[in-house]
């Protein structure tokens, strides 16, 4: 079961005509719930949301078409621009750091290390709990002015600070929370490392390749499809982060908008002030940004991702 | 684990522990290698401790009086009591059990929905030849990328017109329509690994697709179903955004929504109760982790679910 099988599937040649579509009726019966969901819950709302983004809509009166006004307003709205900056900073910092740590740990854990399954479990646990409100609440206390971090610093005579009340460090605590959940990409890397045939390493060793060289010339290229897969998904997920910023900032995105993720601003405008049109426009910009990042990822992959077959 | 000797390491390397296909090389005897192993284990142990220290702190704090929690980060065992648990349980408008029950109902609904709808769609994508298959499969993969924030406003409008706000239906109904494309993908991957000869044999015996699906494929894809159930459990239990939007009345609150109100001004000083209820709300996840690890790890390795 290859992680990238789904993507490769798309490039497979189409079945021959004639006998090719013999299952039409059965297939659409099996797909009925999914088709209904695509129309009613996914694609339909995406299109409606595009329409709403050109309107003024407060849920009570019918939408009032205003053309590009929302988009024009958005790019003069310092809060929105701040939210884009916060979101991009978060994605650009947390995703590579988390993946680098995940890869490093996977390398350490590979090769039949004793106690592997225990380490793997302990390191994986945070990624299971990390999305919860409970852990976000915990994070607030750990980095609060009387929290765990400052108590530790106090032992070394270092004067701590309110990491969450300080605009220049608040986002950093949320980035750390994301890095803390490196366990799930680590597990994916571990599975990938296992599929690298041993003979490549043996050959490299015979040729006198040092460990670093073996990593660069064997591990990295052979693992690159999995690194790519992780990168694409983690970027998409990171753009959608909401809970942690909401809880850590008590729903404000503060201090000084330093944790105002675009998702949080969309929520505040749409469901706090019922500016549904404006919220939809911002959501569409978010979608375009996510799509652009994903497209660039796919485009860039041809320069560094190596497919064995 | 720090007393590893080459002989013991070799013995364990030859044992049943290593999964098949895992590359390994026999450890070379020699002090340098052993020292490197020790450093590695020391590093890993330190990191593991650092990683779970916040969780251990959360648990011990939940048994200590609020005013002591922030005075002393050490894990002393003196003065432990269950007071925080009884306080926290009744600190909010309803007993905390009400919120846990709401979360549990929601979890059961979403699991049932995902198992039903995703397996049907996956069978079609994995086994059937039909017009538009490639396009629909691409659309399905594409929806994985779609941020929920793009569809939430129209969805909210739809469910408010249907008078379904403050019910669980806006959160459960979509699951019966296979909107979690990730699980469709996971199941498609799994079904592809089931030999087609089994389908063919059933077909020769006169079975149609519904029968092949129910009698052949479904029993064989139990591992994928378990993985889906576990991940749906985790996602729904942890979900906050959707529940925040659809469940605004207190009697509908789930555990995360209730936990959040511990941060409000009136209850802000009840740190002990907040920690205790945080522990309780993490407990189901921890149990799933303990008993479902095998499927969890396999599922992540296959699809890269969060």
What fold name goes in the CATH topology slot of chain A?
MetI-like fold
Chain pair forming the biggest interface: A-B, 113 and 115 residues
Parts with pLDDT < 50 across at least 5 consecutive residues of chain B: 1-24
Radius of gyration of chain A: 24 Å
Total number of beta strands of chain A: 2
- Gross geometry of chain B: globular
Number of domains of chain B: 2
What distance lies between the first and last C-alpha atoms of chain B, to the nearest angstrom? 30 Å
Strand order of the largest sheet of chain A: 1-2
- Give me the number of helical elements of chain B: 15
What is the level 1 CATH name of chain A? Mainly Alpha
Alpha plus pi helix count of chain A = 15
The succession of helices and strands of chain B, N to C, reads HHHHHHHHHHHHHHH
Biased composition (Low complexity) (chain B): 1-16
Region (Disordered) (chain B): 1-33
Domain ABC transmembrane type-1 (chain B): 100-292
Transmembrane segments (chain B): 42-60, 99-123, 135-159, 171-191, 212-234, 271-291
Question: What is the topology?
Answer:
The complex is a heterodimer of chains A (309) and B (306).
Chain A: H1 5-9, H2 24-30, H3 32-52, E1 55-56, E2 64-65, H4 69-74, H5 78-109, H6 116-129, H7 133-142, H8 148-155, H9 170-180, H10 183-194, H11 198-206, H12 211-239, H13 243-248, H14 262-272, H15 276-304
Antiparallel strand pairs in A: 1-2
Helix pairs in contact in A: 2-3, 5-9, 5-10, 5-12, 5-14, 6-10, 10-12, 12-15, 14-15
Chain B: H1 6-14, H2 31-61, H3 66-69, H4 83-89, H5 96-127, H6 133-145, H7 148-161, H8 169-172, H9 181-192, H10 196-204, H11 209-220, H12 222-238, H13 241-246, H14 255-260, H15 271-303
């Amino acid at each position: 079961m290859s992680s990238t099988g789904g993507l490769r599937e798309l490039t497979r040649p189409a079945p021959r005509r004639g006998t090719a579509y013999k299952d039409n009726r059965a297939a659409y019966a099996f797909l009925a719930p999914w088709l209904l969901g695509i129309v009613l819950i996914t694609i339909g709302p995406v299109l409606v949301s595009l329409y709403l983004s050109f309107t003024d809509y407060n849920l009570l009166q019918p939408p009032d078409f205003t053309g590009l006004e929302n988009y024009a307003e958005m790019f003069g709205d310092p809060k929105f621009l701040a939210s884009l900056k916060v979101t991009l900073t978060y994605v650009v910092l947390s995703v590579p750091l988390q993946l680098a740590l995940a890869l490093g740990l996977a390398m350490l854990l590979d090769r039949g290390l004793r106690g592997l399954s225990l380490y793997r479990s302990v390191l994986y646990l945070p990624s299971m709990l990390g999305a919860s409100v409970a852990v976000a609440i915990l994070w607030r206390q750990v980095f609060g002015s009387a929290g765990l971090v400052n108590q530790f610093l106090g032992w070394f005579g270092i004067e701590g600070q309110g990491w969450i009340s300080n605009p220049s460090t608040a986002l950093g605590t949320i980035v750390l929370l994301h890095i803390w959940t490196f366990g799930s990409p680590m597990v994916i890397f571990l599975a990938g490392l296992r599929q690298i045939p041993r003979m490549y390493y043996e050959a490299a060793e015979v040729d006198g390749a040092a460990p670093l060289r073996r990593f660069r010339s064997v591990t990295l290229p052979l693992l690159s499809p999995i690194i790519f897969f992780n990168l694409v998904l983690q970027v998409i997920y990171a753009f959608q982060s909401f809970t942690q910023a909401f809880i850590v900032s008590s729903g404000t995105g503060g201090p000084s908008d330093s944790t105002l993720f675009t998702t949080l601003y969309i929520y505040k405008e749409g469901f706090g002030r019922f500016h549904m049109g404006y919220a939809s426009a911002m959501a569409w910009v978010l979608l375009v940004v996510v799509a652009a990042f994903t497209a660039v990822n796919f485009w860039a992959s041809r320069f560094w991702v190596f497919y064995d077959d | 684990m720090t007393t590893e000797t080459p002989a013991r390491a070799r013995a364990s390397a030859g044992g049943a522990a290593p999964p098949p296909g895992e590359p390994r090389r026999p450890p070379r005897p020699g002090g340098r290698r052993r020292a490197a192993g020790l450093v590695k284990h020391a590093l890993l142990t330190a990191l593991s401790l650092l990683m779970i220290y916040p969780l251990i702190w959360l648990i011990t704090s939940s048994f200590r009086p609020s005013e002591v929690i922030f005075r002393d980060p050490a894990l002393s065992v003196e003065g432990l009591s269950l007071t925080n648990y009884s306080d926290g349980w009744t600190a909010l408008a309803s007993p905390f059990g009400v919120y846990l029950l709401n979360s549990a109902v929601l979890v059961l609904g979403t699991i049932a929905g995902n198992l039903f709808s995703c397996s049907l769609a996956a069978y079609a994508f994995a086994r059937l030849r039909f017009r538009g298959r490639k396009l629909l499969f691409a659309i399905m993969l594409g929806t994985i990328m779609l941020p929920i924030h793009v569809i939430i406003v129209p969805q909210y409008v739809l469910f408010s017109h249907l008078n379904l706000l403050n019910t669980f239906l806006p959160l459960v109904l979509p699951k019966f329509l296979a909107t979690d494309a990730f699980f469709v993908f996971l199941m498609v991957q799994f079904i592809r690994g089931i030999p087609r000869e089994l389908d063919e044999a059933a077909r020769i015996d006169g079975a149609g697709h519904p029968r092949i699906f129910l009698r052949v494929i479904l029993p064989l894809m139990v591992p994928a179903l378990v993985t889906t159930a576990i991940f749906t459990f985790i996602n729904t239990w942890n979900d906050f955004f959707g529940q925040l939007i659809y469940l605004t009345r207190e009697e509908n609150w789930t555990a995360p929504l209730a936990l959040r109100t511990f941060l409000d001004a009136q209850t802000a000083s009840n740190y002990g109760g907040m920690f205790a209820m945080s522990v309780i709300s993490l407990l189901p996840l921890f149990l799933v982790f303990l008993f479902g690890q095998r499927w969890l790890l396999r599922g992540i390795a296959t699809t890269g679910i969060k």
